[in-house]
């Protein structure tokens, strides 16, 4: 792919078969204001480095899909923002030579093209509560892209049972990491079950190999509950989510603008408690993804001996 540009660090890491973790960039362009977004981007990359892996923040700059950003490029993205780029939007960004942040689906596409197998995000998109026809492209990406995706479940603003039903239909295994229950983003529990539980990064790695060994091409979705110290009970969040959803309907917010609106409104209603939870789970997922990527690399090396 001529529009795919790997940073020197990522290119060398992939060449040497070292562990690499993809990181999305809409959390930078659409999730937080500057400079909090830049600080988060740095902290997520540092969390991956601390676990012995190489972070590959993915974005589009001037029409090029960039796999791994320099400090200067990261700051530019944090300052300037840009498009919200899912899979359908790459051609537009390339044609117009514009810049922007990649969503879960967009990041999965670019990471897979680059040969990266593990991706850390906050929460996946899914089926919306008030508009079940509004289904995130993230779910289709999970259905057809063989990657390990580490998240804290689906965003709590969504219809979680419907989202899990879609994943089941599309043969996407939902792994609970040290949990039997599907996390609800800000909350550790949802009352919904995962399809399988594993308690170590090595077991997740081995399971992914078994899954793809059957010939299936769907992702392995690893759900990692938010740390207890930063979790918000679901009973506390539900009325707030309902209020934010009602506000979005009143203001006629929909499409790609809906999720950023809801997350911002929830942050306001919780006096930024939800924002702190979001930051915590992002870092927690980055660490776990790095551990899984390292386990995959170790297994590959042992097989080669």
Evaluate the radius of gyration: 18 Å
**Total strand segments:** 11
- Main β sheet profile: 11 strands, mixed
Q: Give start-end ranges of low-pLDDT stretches.
A: none
Query: What is the string of helix and strand elements?
Result: EHEHHEEHEHEHEHEHEEHEHHH
Distance between the termini: 33 Å
Number of helices: 12
Please identify the structural class as seen in this structure: alpha/beta
Helix proportion of residues, in percent?
A: 40-55%
Q: How would you describe what is shown here?
A:
With 305 residues, the chain is an alpha/beta fold. Helices cover 49% and strands 14% of the residues. It is built from twelve helices and eleven strands. It has helices spanning 8-15, 26-31, 36-50, 71-80, 90-96, 104-114, 137-144, 160-169, 201-213, 234-250, 258-269, 273-304; strands spanning 4-6, 20-23, 54-61, 64-67, 83-85, 100-102, 118-120, 148-151, 174-177, 196-198, 220-223. Strands 1, 2, 3, 4, 5, 6, 7, 8, 9, 10 and 11 form an eleven-stranded mixed β-sheet that branches. Helix 10 crosses helix 11 (258-269). The chain is globular. It starts with a strand and ends with a helix. The model has no long low-confidence stretch (mean pLDDT 94).
Give keywords.
single chain, about 300 residues, alpha/beta
């Amino acid at each position: 792919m001529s529009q795919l540009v790997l940073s020197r660090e990522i290119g060398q890491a992939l060449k040497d078969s070292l562990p690499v973790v993809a990181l999305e960039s809409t959390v930078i362009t659409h999730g937080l204001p500057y400079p909090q977004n830049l600080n988060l981007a740095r902290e997520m990359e540092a969390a991956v480095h601390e676990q012995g892996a190489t972070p590959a923040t993915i974005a589009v700059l001037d029409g090029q899909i960039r796999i791994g950003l320099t400090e200067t490029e990261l700051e530019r993205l944090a300052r300037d923002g840009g498009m919200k780029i899912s899979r359908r939007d790459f051609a537009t960004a390339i044609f117009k030579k514009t810049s922007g942040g990649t969503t879960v689906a967009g990041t999965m596409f670019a990471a897979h093209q680059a040969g990266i197998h593990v991706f850390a995000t906050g929460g996946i998109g899914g089926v919306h509560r008030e508009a079940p026809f509004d289904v995130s492209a993230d779910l289709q990406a999970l259905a057809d892209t063989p990657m390990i995706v580490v998240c804290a479940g689906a965003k709590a603003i969504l219809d979680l049972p419907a989202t899990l039903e879609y994943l089941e239909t599309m043969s996407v295994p939902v792994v609970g990491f040290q949990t039997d229950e599907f996390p609800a983003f800000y909350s550790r529990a949802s009352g919904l079950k995962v399809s399988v539980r594993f308690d170590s990064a090595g077991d997740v790695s081995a399971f992914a190999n078994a899954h793809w060994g059957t010939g299936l091409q769907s992702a392995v979705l690893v759900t990692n509950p938010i740390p207890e110290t930063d979790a918000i009970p679901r009973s506390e969040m539900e009325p707030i989510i309902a209020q934010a959803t009602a506000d979005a309907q009143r203001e006629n917010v929909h499409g790609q603008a809906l999720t950023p609106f809801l997350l911002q409104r929830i942050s306001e209603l919780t006096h930024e408690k939800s924002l702190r939870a979001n930051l915590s789970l992002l870092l927690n997922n980055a660490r776990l993804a790095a551990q899984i990527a390292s386990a995959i690399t170790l297994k590959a090396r042992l097989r080669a001996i």
